[in-house]
Amino acid sequence: MRRPRWSRARPRWWSRLAAGVRGLPRPRTMRARLTAGLVVLLAVSCAAVGVAAVYELNGFLTGRVDQQLHDVGVRYPASLEHGNDLPKSDHDGDEHGDTRKQSTGTFGARLVGPDVTNAAVVPSGDNATGQNVSVTPADKKALAGVPIDGRGHTICLSAVGEYRVMASRGIDGDVLITGLPMEPVTATVHRLELVAGCVFGVALAVAGVAGALWVRWSLRPLSRVAATATRVSELPLASGEVALPPRAPESDPRSEVGRVSGAFNRMLGHVEDALTKRHASEERLRSFAADASHELRTPVASVRGHAELALLHPGPVPSKVTRALERIAAESARMGEMVDDLLLLARLDAGRPLEQVPVDLTRLVLDAVTDARAAGPDHRWTLELAEEPVTVTGDAHRLQQVLANLLANARLHTPVGIKVTVSLAVDDTVSLAVNDTTAVLTVHDDGPGVPQDVQPGVFERFTRADRRRTEGTGGGAGLGLSIVAAVVEAHGGSVRLESRPGATTFTVRLPVGA
After folding, report:
1. In DSSP terms, which residues pair with 250 in a beta bridge?
2. Could you tell me the CA-to-CA distances from 318 to 155, 312, 485 in Å, in that order?
3. What are the Cα distances from residue 67, in Å, to 58, 179, 189, 389?
4. What secondary structure letter does DSSP report for 512?
5. H helix or E strand, kind and range, residue 36
6. pTM (2 decimals)?
7. Is 93 left (phi over 0), alpha (psi -120 to 50) or beta?
């Protein structure tokens, strides 16, 4: 049986540090990242220089203290050892030891085994006798642990602080310890740390500001490319003639930014050429559709007229001929409607203005629903109107065509018995063009819905679903909803489809006339 593998949990401080680092704001722009990277690298370099300088200075000053300990030797602790046996003239008559020729703060101690028999320090001033030092058990342990190797060692004494000490063997087999204070070394090192911190801090601040300015200056060509790309992204490129903004300023092609700028300008040139060719092709197609529609109106009308005239012949006509003439008349009528729709779309694409008069949209909705009830008695038609009549500015005939197309779409592409609800209201919350008040017309049915793959292009020309929303219904040419979209857009409005099984809604928004 395999033993479970145990992973050592990370300490809490590490988790807190990682959480703090993750919580720091991260620079998002290239300019900020380059500046931050420059400052971080400089900070690491300054820290490395500072640490190395402090370490070397501390080692150098400590070595100087060790040299002084060698020079001083054990004279002071030896005077503590023989203070009771030497003549008074030799040690100035005091058991605290002879302090002559000793620097202030020199420490001396005498140990016999683990016991400290004497411990004193040279005071400041002209006093020739040392000052006793109280030794705690921890100090005794630290003094006893100093190896007798002729080298300096750093210990901390409770009464006098941190000292650099050296131990030697006395003439009586005892241990003599001489020490010098580390306070001058520590003060010098701390002063260096303070000065280095201030200097490096100022250097980092200056380098940060200068680096930000330098990075900004270096990335100016890239900023211009970004500004040009932003202006291009805001242009409507879907259709029509497109005027691209001026190219990005050229820079040194040997630099990365220069190569990006050059490639971007070449790409804009290709895009402009493609858009120009597309616009020319659209214009040719639009002109062809308009000309063809216009030219076909007369022949189609002639064919329809001759067919109807033949049906009115008083003489006997075989039933098959009568059926053929009826089909010719019906198809020519259908073709005439298609030609009229194509001609209308061509005129709208060309930007031909529509009639602009006050139109009672409420009256148009009432008439359209009445006609829909007569054409589709098997559907359930409901009407929801605003309390006050809704008036818009536009072309009454074209708006009536929008309503007729939407209701015909609901009638032809839903099964029998489906409920169709037509609503008209006024919305003050949506802004369209320069008018803040819009008329909202919705046509809702609870039929099977528009297939998902058809919805994105439902307002495009000749769009016809392969899977009908109902079976057994005739289909048009696929121009009805494209005419709805074109007419609504020509009136400064918008149309939107929302469809799912059991709920299909066409929403038309039109600016309300003054």
Report:
1. none
2. 131, 13, 46
3. 14, 12, 19, 108
4. B
5. helix 30-72
6. 0.47
7. left
